[in-house]
Amino acid sequence: MAASSDVVTTPRSYAATPRRGPVTRLLEDERWLALVLLLPTMVLLLLFIAYPFVKGVMLSVTDARVGVPGVFVGLRNFAALMDDSIFRVAVWNTVLYTAVTTVFKLAFGLWLALLLNRHFKGKAITRAFVLLPFIIPTVLSTFA
Length: 144
What we know:
By secondary structure, the chain is an all-alpha fold. The protein is 69% helix and 0% strand.
């Protein structure tokens, strides 16, 4: 009989770890992965927000017309607006409309919130109907 110390064990061979390429190593670094994942959003923001904003500022300081490239005029366009009575009336109407509607919406919203806070029959269904206009766009955009 062989003693238990006579048994020879061979070391187990494990599967070698796969070699990682440079792209895999780069994507495993969370800092670079975050940048890669944010890149499409940044491109869309630049394309649809930053570019129109910069283009609008550039157009506001030129005398451009449709189909004709403009010449830089500086702040002359804004000075001309200050002398325009129609523009001043439009600005006044906008400020007045914004102030009145903001106060009205605040007062109406507060009154409605106080009413819906009371206990009455059908309170849950009334709350659902009041919140429905806020819920529907979210549900539709989720489906889209």
